[in-house]
C-alpha cells in the first residue's frame, strides 16, 4: 500500500538519508575503530556507545528507505488548481465563532507537525476539508465539541 507524501516531505527524507549514509555512517565506523584500539571491548564505554549509535543510525536508514519505498509522492504545485482542497494544498480557514484564522497544509502522516501548520491527511480537520472549496463551511468534531470553519483560501504552494 502506498502512502501519500508531499514532494517537500520526500526531499527532506532523502536529504536525511544521504546525511546518515555519507556522514554519520563513516563517523561511527571511525569511532568504533578508534574504540577498538583502546583494548578490552567488554569494559570499553566508547566502543559500546558507538555500537549503540550505529544500531540507531542503521535502524533510521531502514525506516527512511521503507517510508520512501512506500511513498506516493504528490507535487501539488504540478496539479492545476481547481479551487478544491486536495492532498498537499495549503488552506486558510477561519473559526466561525471566534473569527480566529489559521493556515494549514495537508500532508502525509509522517510529515504532520501542527507547530509549523502541517496537518495529517487523516486528521479530523483535514478529512472535513478534503473536497471542499472557498466559502464552504465545514463542521469539525473536536474534544470540546463541534467547531465550524469557513474556508477563506486554497492554494497550491
TrEMBL record:
One GO molecular-function entry: translation elongation factor activity
Protein role: Necessary for efficient RNA polymerase transcription elongation past template-encoded arresting sites. The arresting sites in DNA have the property of trapping a certain fraction of elongating RNA polymerases that pass through, resulting in locked ternary complexes. Cleavage of the nascent transcript by cleavage factors such as GreA or GreB allows the resumption of elongation from the new 3'terminus. GreA releases sequences of 2 to 3 nucleotides.
Q: Which family does it belong to?
A: Belongs to the GreA/GreB family.
This chain belongs to which protein, by name?
Transcription elongation factor GreA
Under the heading PROSITE patterns, the entry gives: GREAB_1, GREAB_2
Provide the organism lineage as a comma list. Answer: Bacteria, Pseudomonadati, Pseudomonadota, Gammaproteobacteria, Pseudomonadales
What region holds the Transcription elongation factor GreA/GreB N-terminal domain?
A: 4-73
**What keywords would UniProt list here?**
DNA-binding, Elongation factor, Protein biosynthesis, Transcription, Transcription regulation
InterPro entries attached here?
Answer: GreA/GreB_C_sf, TF_GreA/GreB_CS, Tscrpt_elong_fac_GreA, Tscrpt_elong_fac_GreA/B, Tscrpt_elong_fac_GreA/B_C, Tscrpt_elong_fac_GreA/B_fam, Tscrpt_elong_fac_GreA/B_N, Tscrpt_elong_fac_GreA/B_N_sf
Gene from which the chain derives: greA
* Domain Transcription elongation factor GreA/GreB C-terminal, chain residue ranges per copy: 81-155
Q: Is Secreted among this UniProt entry's keywords?
A: no
